[in-house]
Structures are given as C-alpha cells and as structure tokens.
Specification:
Distance between the termini: 38 Å
Shape: globular
Number of strands: 11
Structural class: mainly beta
Order of helices and strands: EEEEEEEEEEE
C-alpha cells in the first residue's frame, strides 16, 4: 500500500497549486482521506478531509474558501486545490487515509500516510 503525494513547489503569495495524492494497493472510494501539513518546528496540523462516502468535507478555518479537497475515483487520486496562497501556508503537505473513516481532524485516526510534498509561498 502506498500513497504518493505530489504537486508541491514554490509559488508567490496569491498564487495557486494543486496537490495530488495517488494510491496504490488501496481503493480511495473506501477511505476517508485527509490532507495535513507541517511547518518547520511546528506540529502536524489538519487541513482538509472528506469522509469515506465522500458526502462530507471538512476544512480547518484558515483555509476555508481557499482550498478544496476532491477525489477522482477513476484515477484513484485525491486532490487539494489551493488558491489565494499565503506565506503562512508554507509547509510540507501530507495525505493520509482511514478505512471507512469519518474524515477526522486527528492524525491518530489515519494509518496510511504518504510522504510529504513541500509547498513554499513567497511574499
């Protein structure tokens, strides 16, 4: 089982990036999937998630209205569209999966993790 995160990079404030999380060995349609991020010297924090049915999405307050999480079942890939990026969005972003999960904000609920993809937003 592997989650492969990609799409990070360097962008100016106000710009956009789309992160991808591709799964192998599991089917995302059976999983809650979340994005977390971790800035240097800070704890990993919840960004966005949807429950395994895909019927509910959740966002941390600081990204509401700017970020959108979505899933393409045919490609077995989850995306995080990030618009109006700010320097404080700079972090390593991780995708995580939880079988038949509710889309929790807690890292402890997820037992499948991808490697991080680095997002750097310059001012």
């Amino acid at each position: 089982v592997q989650l492969q995160a990609s799409g990070g990079g360097l962008v100016q404030a106000g710009g956009s990036l789309r992160l991808s999380c591709a799964a192998s060995g599991l089917t995302f349609s059976n999983y809650a999937v979340a994005w977390f991020r971790q800035a240097p010297d800070k704890e990993r924090e919840f960004v966005a998630a949807f429950n395994w049915r895909g019927s509910n999405t959740y966002y941390t307050d600081s990204v509401k209205g700017r970020f959108t999480i979505s899933r393409d079942n045919a490609k077995n890939t989850v995306y995080l569209q990030m618009n109006s990026l700010k320097p404080e969005d700079t972090a390593a972003y991780y995708c995580a999966a939880d079988f038949r999960g509710s889309g929790s904000w807690s890292t402890s609920q997820y037992n499948r993790w991808g490697q991080g993809t680095l997002v750097t937003v310059s001012s």
